[in-house]
Amino acid sequence: MKRSFITAGLLAAFAMTGTATLAEECAERGALDTMFCDANGDLVADAPTDESMLKDPSTLVFAYTPVEDPAIYEDIWTPFIDHLSEVTGKKVQFFAVQSNSAEVEAMRSGRLHIAGFSTGPTPFAVNLAGVEPFAIMGSEDGQFGYKLQVYTQADSDIKEMPDLAGKRVAHTSPTSNSGNQAPRALFPDLGVVPDQDYEVTYSGSHDQSMLGVVAGDYDAAPVASEVVDRMAERGLYDPAEVRIVWESDPFPTTSYGVAHDLTPELKDKIKEAFFSYDFTGTALGEEFSGVSKFVPITYKDQWAVIRQIQSANGVEYTPQGLAAE
């Protein structure tokens, strides 16, 4: 499918869900789209003040961030979905999304109620779709996060970051934090400028970047540690074939949020389901090693460093910016 067709369809979908009257009534919205307000200054969309606009659907739709094989992750999430259904008293349907753009648009249009958004796309979900992030996977002591790591082949002549000059390096996608935005913001201080000192090739995902390094299609790639760790555990590549050139301090991982216009009672039940879920002995616990529960977060606090990185890259939270992904 051509990029121009995707962009035109996405922009049309966003235009159809815009609200002109709210733009006149809202005194403060910050970076939020004109269909949302932020009167309390927490940087996320306020719930509608008109109670008739609040939603209490009989079936909740849940999505996890786009991955290489959605079918596998649907099975992994099934026990949690059963728990979510039990706590909320609602039917819960898993929705396999094919792209970050599609996931954001589904939330904005009201077809999606609960979702996990990867680090970089989370601000787009907040500002364009009215998502309220409230949880993240963490350890028993409440710690969470992942690192940006730069991988190359084990026998590569790339020893330090400046050695990337003149090489073919895989970034994942334009809106990805660890796969593109953070490298563009951080690498210049490490002695190498993406697109200037080395050729950037977009692979489409962390999985493809890593597999491309292993296969020799790319000389190196910046990737999220949590993704490549899971790939190694599933035997998708041999860690002995690659080597880490550099790694960052931790970033927040996938955020889990709800649509801003669900009823307060339903939001509370959804959050209760997340925070009461025990990963021990579950498929989630096996897939996401090092975490044991969902821990509370706020977009304002935990995503401050991500907003800083994106601001340094000139990212604007608009439909055009999202379509560029």
TrEMBL record:
Origin superkingdom: Bacteria
Keyword annotations from UniProtKB, A to Z: Signal
Xref: InterPro entries: PhnD
GO biological process, one term: transmembrane transport
Cellular component per GO, a single term: ATP-binding cassette (ABC) transporter complex
Signal sequence bounds: 1-22
NCBIfam families per record: 3A0109s03R
The family this protein is said to belong to: Belongs to the phosphate/phosphite/phosphonate binding protein family.
Protein known as: Phosphate/phosphite/phosphonate ABC transporter substrate-binding protein
Gene name for this UniProt entry: phnD
